[in-house]
Specification:
Shape: elongated
Helix content: 10-25%
Order of helices and strands: EHEEEEEHEEE
Structural class: mainly beta
Distance between the termini: 68 Å
Strand content: 25-35%
Radius of gyration: 24 Å
Largest sheet: 3 strands, antiparallel
Strand order of the largest sheet: 2-1-3
Number of helices: 2
Protein backbone atom coordinates (compact mmCIF):
# COMPACT_ATOMS: atom_id res chain seq x y z
CA UNK A 1 0.00 0.00 0.00
CA UNK A 2 1.40 3.40 -0.98
CA UNK A 3 1.11 6.08 1.71
CA UNK A 4 1.27 9.74 0.90
CA UNK A 5 2.55 12.25 3.39
CA UNK A 6 0.20 14.80 4.76
CA UNK A 7 1.21 18.20 5.99
CA UNK A 8 -1.11 20.39 8.02
CA UNK A 9 -0.05 23.99 8.57
CA UNK A 10 -1.71 26.15 11.19
CA UNK A 11 -0.85 29.05 13.47
CA UNK A 12 -1.48 29.28 17.19
CA UNK A 13 -1.40 32.64 18.92
CA UNK A 14 -2.09 31.58 22.51
CA UNK A 15 0.55 29.64 24.47
CA UNK A 16 -0.69 26.20 25.51
CA UNK A 17 -0.08 22.47 25.36
CA UNK A 18 -2.39 20.16 23.48
CA UNK A 19 -2.88 16.58 22.37
CA UNK A 20 -4.19 15.52 18.98
CA UNK A 21 -5.51 12.28 17.53
CA UNK A 22 -6.19 11.22 13.94
CA UNK A 23 -7.69 8.37 11.98
CA UNK A 24 -6.19 6.92 8.80
CA UNK A 25 -6.96 9.17 5.83
CA UNK A 26 -7.24 6.22 3.41
CA UNK A 27 -9.89 4.43 5.46
CA UNK A 28 -11.94 7.53 6.26
CA UNK A 29 -11.23 9.30 2.94
CA UNK A 30 -10.24 12.33 4.99
CA UNK A 31 -8.27 13.20 8.09
CA UNK A 32 -10.43 13.57 11.18
CA UNK A 33 -8.93 15.31 14.15
CA UNK A 34 -10.51 14.00 17.28
CA UNK A 35 -10.99 15.84 20.55
CA UNK A 36 -9.32 14.10 23.48
CA UNK A 37 -12.77 13.74 25.08
CA UNK A 38 -14.30 12.09 22.00
CA UNK A 39 -15.70 8.54 22.08
CA UNK A 40 -14.07 8.01 18.66
CA UNK A 41 -10.62 8.39 20.17
CA UNK A 42 -10.42 4.61 20.43
CA UNK A 43 -10.38 4.47 16.62
CA UNK A 44 -7.39 6.79 16.38
CA UNK A 45 -4.26 5.34 14.84
CA UNK A 46 -2.14 8.44 15.21
CA UNK A 47 -1.60 10.84 18.06
CA UNK A 48 0.82 13.32 19.47
CA UNK A 49 1.37 16.33 21.65
CA UNK A 50 2.61 19.81 20.98
CA UNK A 51 3.59 22.88 22.93
CA UNK A 52 3.10 26.48 21.86
CA UNK A 53 5.68 28.54 23.75
CA UNK A 54 4.78 32.05 24.89
CA UNK A 55 6.54 34.98 23.24
CA UNK A 56 7.73 37.43 25.86
CA UNK A 57 8.66 40.98 24.90
CA UNK A 58 10.41 43.60 27.02
CA UNK A 59 11.96 47.03 26.84
CA UNK A 60 11.28 50.17 24.84
CA UNK A 61 11.96 48.39 21.55
CA UNK A 62 9.60 45.54 22.48
CA UNK A 63 12.47 43.07 22.03
CA UNK A 64 11.68 39.38 22.15
CA UNK A 65 13.12 37.64 25.22
CA UNK A 66 14.28 34.05 24.54
CA UNK A 67 12.66 31.50 26.86
CA UNK A 68 16.02 30.17 28.04
CA UNK A 69 16.85 33.64 29.40
CA UNK A 70 14.04 33.49 31.96
CA UNK A 71 14.85 32.36 35.48
CA UNK A 72 11.65 32.18 37.49
CA UNK A 73 11.24 31.77 41.26
CA UNK A 74 7.85 30.80 42.73
CA UNK A 75 7.11 32.55 46.00
CA UNK A 76 4.43 31.65 48.55
CA UNK A 77 2.87 35.08 48.92
CA UNK A 78 1.26 34.22 52.26
CA UNK A 79 4.75 33.65 53.73
CA UNK A 80 6.08 37.10 52.78
CA UNK A 81 4.32 39.01 55.56
CA UNK A 82 3.18 42.62 55.22
CA UNK A 83 3.72 44.41 51.88
CA UNK A 84 6.17 46.78 53.54
CA UNK A 85 8.57 43.83 54.08
CA UNK A 86 8.33 42.26 50.63
CA UNK A 87 11.17 44.19 48.98
CA UNK A 88 13.76 42.99 51.48
CA UNK A 89 12.49 39.41 51.32
CA UNK A 90 12.43 39.35 47.52
CA UNK A 91 15.93 40.82 47.28
CA UNK A 92 17.30 37.31 47.90
CA UNK A 93 15.71 36.07 44.65
CA UNK A 94 17.12 39.07 42.76
CA UNK A 95 20.62 38.55 44.14
CA UNK A 96 20.42 34.83 43.31
CA UNK A 97 19.92 35.75 39.64
CA UNK A 98 16.18 35.30 39.19
CA UNK A 99 14.64 37.77 36.75
CA UNK A 100 10.99 36.74 37.11
CA UNK A 101 8.87 36.03 40.16
CA UNK A 102 5.68 33.96 40.19
CA UNK A 103 3.52 34.79 43.19
CA UNK A 104 0.94 32.38 44.52
CA UNK A 105 -2.47 34.11 44.87
CA UNK A 106 -2.56 37.25 47.03
CA UNK A 107 -6.31 37.09 47.62
CA UNK A 108 -8.01 36.25 50.91
CA UNK A 109 -7.47 32.54 51.56
CA UNK A 110 -10.12 30.01 52.53
CA UNK A 111 -10.46 27.90 55.66
CA UNK A 112 -7.68 25.47 54.72
CA UNK A 113 -5.21 28.36 54.28
CA UNK A 114 -3.91 26.65 51.14
CA UNK A 115 -2.24 29.12 48.79
CA UNK A 116 -4.71 28.21 46.05
CA UNK A 117 -7.87 28.00 48.18
CA UNK A 118 -9.30 31.48 47.65
CA UNK A 119 -12.20 32.64 49.80
CA UNK A 120 -12.79 35.95 48.03
CA UNK A 121 -11.00 36.78 44.79
CA UNK A 122 -11.73 40.50 45.19
CA UNK A 123 -10.19 40.83 48.68
CA UNK A 124 -6.48 40.91 49.46
CA UNK A 125 -5.15 38.58 52.15
CA UNK A 126 -5.18 40.50 55.46
CA UNK A 127 -1.76 38.96 56.29
CA UNK A 128 -0.27 41.62 54.03
CA UNK A 129 -1.32 44.41 56.40
CA UNK A 130 0.94 45.40 59.32
CA UNK A 131 -2.06 45.93 61.60
CA UNK A 132 -3.96 42.67 62.06
CA UNK A 133 -7.60 42.56 61.07
CA UNK A 134 -7.32 45.59 58.76
CA UNK A 135 -7.56 45.53 55.00
CA UNK A 136 -4.35 45.32 53.07
CA UNK A 137 -3.87 47.72 50.18
CA UNK A 138 -1.18 48.81 47.78
Amino acid sequence: MHHKSLKIVTQFHIPHTAAFFSRDAYICKKITLLCSCSDSMEEANGSGYFLVDPMIHAGKMDDRVPMDCLRCQTVLAKALGPFSEWQDRLRVAYEAGYNMIHFTPIQELGESNSSYCIRDQLTLNSAFSKVSRTSASF
